[in-house]
Specification:
Shape: elongated
Strand content: under 5%
Number of strands: 0
Distance between the termini: 28 Å
Order of helices and strands: HHHH
């Protein structure tokens, strides 16, 4: 059981890293797609019991903050996203 939770946390952390990499490399469509995949992944891992409730709450809040920061994220102005690390 502990191994599954550890593996789930690692998967989520890797997805956050993927989003950050896409933002830094100006891959807008991939960043948006990765964020959507993250949200789906969180729900699936929590629903299957692989992600503990405390971990789910932490990552869900982090994903919600990311969603809010990426509102209006398009092909015109990315400079504010490059200054912050998620």
């Amino acid at each position: 059981m502990f191994f599954k939770k550890s593996k789930a946390r690692r998967q989520v952390a890797d997805k956050f890293q993927e989003i950050q990499m896409n933002l830094e490399n100006n891959y807008k469509d991939l960043a948006i797609l990765s964020r959507k995949e993250l949200e789906k992944m969180l729900e699936e891992l929590y629903g299957s019991g692989e992600l503990a409730e405390a971990d789910y709450s932490y990552y869900k809040n982090k994903a919600d903050d990311l969603r809010q920061k990426m509102e209006g994220y398009d092909h015109t102005n990315i400079s504010k996203f490059l200054k912050e690390r998620y």
